[in-house]
Design brief:
globular; about 15% strand; alpha/beta; 8-stranded mixed sheet
Length: about 400
């Protein structure tokens, strides 16, 4: 379909109507684009035995082709466009690659769904394209409900430069000289760049402005992590459930009169309960350093909950709850396990689907937030921050 906002010069007030961010879901049986069938996947995943074949991982051009195909073939109006077409001031990545978004749905509540903010964490891209395909084509009652309740804003590849280089970061780049700024590569972690003194990278400024035009109600961010085991059992973990401002920690209880402290826990309690029905998914809470909860303020999803106002673009201080998922293994340390690609992607698809359906029906909002403590985790000894080092509990 042809969107109405194709002219980058269109004034901001005349752009596409506000779309709060909607995270997208997919059927339990849905498989990632180009992925192996779960039936053929290795039962133990990911594994250091599964060497990563980078050529099989989707690149920027692959994503563009798939988004354009979904726009052409979807039954329910997938709209794929660049931020240049959306009319943001910054329109490309540091190295000049187009930044793409796809929307679908007509609901009043908008959900932000992003993946691959770290370039060596690829399966968020696969999962988001899979669920976008289902949202655009699946006529079941579940997907009908999601399209009626939400409008989805899907960013399958937030960091195209890092994805092409298979690195976590982006590199500040002089597009005129075609070389790193200052001659020496300066790597920027895009997931630490949404701060009052940050926004060093073009990708950060571009997606932040788009976020301020959307005013989401909910958000989901998809990541990868290293290989880990559950505390107390030693079982291999395939998916960790994360909240970037620690529940009950230094920051979250003070936001929105404590609402985000409750809602983010309710969101993950619901995901844990629903995904526990699948025997191949092993979950825990996301922690670092063995026993530390994270309380970072420079992460994108943290800044969303904090209602960051950068450059006067969010004067009303709009904010919303956001959670993230961490699939074990990444593509730069040989621990991804290509044989398990189908299962690794599918667990994210299932997690998004169950969370979104729970939000749409109100089941999430009825969950007991105190059950967050039942999700496997090590006893918390402190909070890892990006503003005050480690803050001990108590």
């Amino acid at each position: 379909m042809t969107p109405q906002h194709r002219d980058p010069a269109t004034p901001r007030s005349a752009r596409r109507p506000h779309r709060r961010i909607a995270a997208v879901a997919a059927l339990a049986v849905a498989l990632p684009l180009g992925a192996a069938s779960p039936a053929a996947a290795d039962a133990n995943f990911p594994s250091t035995e599964g060497s990563t074949n980078i050529s099989s991982i989707l690149g920027h051009d692959d994503v563009v082709r798939e988004l354009q195909k979904l726009e052409r073939t979807s039954r329910y109006g997938v709209d794929a466009f660049t931020l240049a077409e959306a009319g943001t001031e910054v329109i490309t990545s540091e190295q000049g690659r187009d930044l793409w978004v796809a929307t679908v749905g007509s609901g009043e509540e908008h959900v932000w769904l992003q993946g691959r903010i770290h370039g060596n964490e690829p399966y968020g891209t696969d999962a988001l394209l899979t669920l976008l395909k289902d949202l655009g084509s699946n006529g079941s009652a579940e997907y009908e409900l999601l399209r009626e309740k939400f409008t989805f804003h899907v960013i399958p590849m937030y960091n195209p430069d890092g994805a092409e280089a298979n690195i976590r970061h982006t590199v500040l780049w002089d597009q005129v000289s075609g070389a790193p700024e200052g001659g020496t590569p300066q790597r920027i972690d895009l997931n630490r760049d949404w701060t009052a003194d940050g926004f060093a990278a073009d990708e950060s400024r571009a997606f932040y402005e788009y976020w301020t035009t959307v005013d989401p109600a909910w958000g989901i961010d998809i990541h990868h992590q290293g290989l880990k085991q559950q505390h107390g059992t030693g079982d291999d973990v395939t998916l960790s459930l994360g909240i970037s401002l620690a529940p009950g920690g230094p920051t979250l209880p003070g936001l929105a009169d404590g609402a985000y402290d409750r809602l983010t826990r309710q969101m993950h309690v619901h995901v844990h309960d629903e995904l526990s029905k699948y025997g191949y998914i092993s979950m825990d809470r996301y922690q670092v350093g063995g026993s530390l909860e994270i309380d970072i303020k420079g992460g994108v999803v943290s800044a969303m909950m904090l209602g960051l106002d950068h450059d006067g673009l969010n004067p009303e201080g709009h904010s919303h709850p956001v959670v993230f998922f961490e699939t074990s293994g990444n593509s730069s340390d040989g621990s991804l396990g290509q044989k398990a690609r189908g299962k690794s992607v599918q667990q994210n698809v299932l997690a998004m689907k169950e969370l979104l359906l729970g939000l749409a029906t109100g089941e999430v909002q009825q969950e007991d937030p105190e059950r967050w403590d039942e999700i496997p985790h090590a006893p918390v000894t402190g909070y890892q921050t990006d503003y005050a080092g480690v803050i001990p509990v108590g």
